[in-house]
Amino acid sequence: MAKVTIVDVATRSGVSISTVSRYLKDAGSINPASAAKIDLAIRELNYIPNSFARNLKRGSANLIGVVEPDISQHFFSHTIKAINNILYQNGYMLLVCDSDFQPRKEQFLINRLMEQNVSGILVATTGQNTEFLRKISERFPNIVLFDREEDSLSLDCVVEDNEENAYRLTRHLIAQGARRIAVLTGLAHVSSTRQRMAGICRATEEAGIPLGAKDTFMNGTDPEIIRTNAGRILDAGIYDTVIFTIPRGIYGIQNALWERGMELGRDILVGGWSNREVIRQQPAWYPVVLQNADMMGTTVANRILRRVNLQGEFLPSERLVLEPELYLP
Questions:
Q1: Residue 290 to residue 292: CA distance in whole angstroms
Q2: What are phi and psi of 105, to 5 degrees?
Q3: Tens digit of pLDDT for each residue in 129-148?
């Protein structure tokens, strides 16, 4: 079936193409009788306006793109929901893209979003695209980083105080008796991983129990790798505490303990990161830093809206730091 065009609508309604075009931009700007004819023709022909072409003509679209690494993670899915709610209230639509933690895919998605003439782009970066983001931002300033940052880039970013909360969490575990600590971490090149490790190391060094390289187990986000590394920690028989720097870490630890007939709290201390929404549904009985996805999403959305609505005014880049809650059962 041939695609219905604006020409077909004009022919069916008996008006000029320019009149249909004006109707699509502002129905109230034309004669009511003509507007009624056009409306009827659109419904009869099931005509769908080419919004992308109109966006190219006027220079921008009421679209915001977001590129995040894994929407299956509670934090990112809830953050995106909060972003979408704010954007909808302000007349913008959100385009969600998942990079799967792949730097090249992240580049591809950002380029495609720019081709769609989006008004702004939100990025939870893989941490391996610094130069790419630098070049993009030179010609497209409406970029806001969230959850992860790039220190060398002059871009807006919304992050959590990862180092300070890691420090507080570790100090609490040490006060509970932790002396031999192993850490299950996320991806090494992601800023949040580096910051959390810095806080953990600061606390252990102050307590005189510094971590060695052999005590740190890099997991990425693969559940099977996390479970395997948790098993290695337990089988070593020398650790009394495990700190996990990504929320998924607790599931790997629990599975490894279950396989060995061991229990949290009884056989080993644990602490790490979780999501406020998850803990509300099932309170934990171990200490966790609670990420606030709603606050992250709301802050990120408001920042990109402020930037895209500048209308030529200069807005310096800003690093906005959120304070997660340290939950102590």
A1: 6
A2: -65, -40
A3: 999 999 999 888 899 999 99
Q: Scanning the structure block, which residue is given the tokens 């890691």?
A: 166
Q: Give backbone dihedrals phi and psi of 31, rounded to 5 degrees, phi first.
A: -55, 130
Amino acid, single-letter form, for residue 46: N
Determine the pLDDT at residue 59. 45
Tens digits of residue pLDDT in 159-185:
999 999 999 999 999 999 999 999 999
Is 70 exposed, middle or buried (CB count within 10 Å of its CB: 0-12, 13-18, 19+)?
A: middle
pTM: 0.80
